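Lab notebook, page 48
Experiment: co-folding of the full assembly
Goal: obtain a model of how the components sit together before planning crosslinking
Operator: M.T.
Materials (sequences as entered):
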Amino acid sequence: DGGITQSPKYLFRKEGQNVTLSCEQNLNHDAMYWYRQDPGQGLRLIYYSQIVNDFQKGDIAEGYSVSREKKESFPLTVTSAQKNPTAFYLCASSIVPDGGELFFGEGSRLTVL
Amino acid sequence: GQQLNQSPQSMFIQEGEDVSMNCTSSSIFNTWLWYKQDPGEGPVLLIALYKAGELTSNGRLTAQFGITRKDSFLNISASIPSDVGIYFCAGRLMYSGGGADGLTFGKGTHLIIQP
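Observation: model returned without errors.
Model output:
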């Protein structure tokens, strides 16, 4: 089945550690996105990529990094510079970068101990 | 980013009741998307709207693209227990130039069905 796969589902991290969240899609979508979700807030855009080897910062990129070496993969690294990393992270993709519908993965919950 | 006002923030209803929620903004949009999110899961797309005035149904769900392009409505008829969850609207700005930075999400409506 086509879809977006995020892993791990749950992740615990000690302060000062970097962690990488995986996002893989087999929908052949050009664009991929990372959002952060906190209780009581709408989804906030971290980074997005419209094409391989290119990506742009979203509204809250500080403390995060991404890469887009393959069309189907868009991993997110939460660095130790992110002040409040505990959150639910959602990866999404769309067939075209400038419109259409976003499809989401099942999310990854990161907890910093 | 732009502000989308989604209301109500939460709804407590009885099974079988109809539900109505909306999103409004001072900005003009060319796309409205409605999602449902279950606890601990990713949002699932329910309905996509692309034309002002468009009315689209998906089973018991009906959504409308406001004629002013500044709002959208989602209605659920004859609610059932599995309708429980958080419903999000998302709008793509008319003059954003495209890209992910043109898509704004509401804060969600929590739908709770009382026994």
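Interpretation: DSSP finds no helices and eleven strands in chain A.
Next step: discuss with group before ordering constructs.
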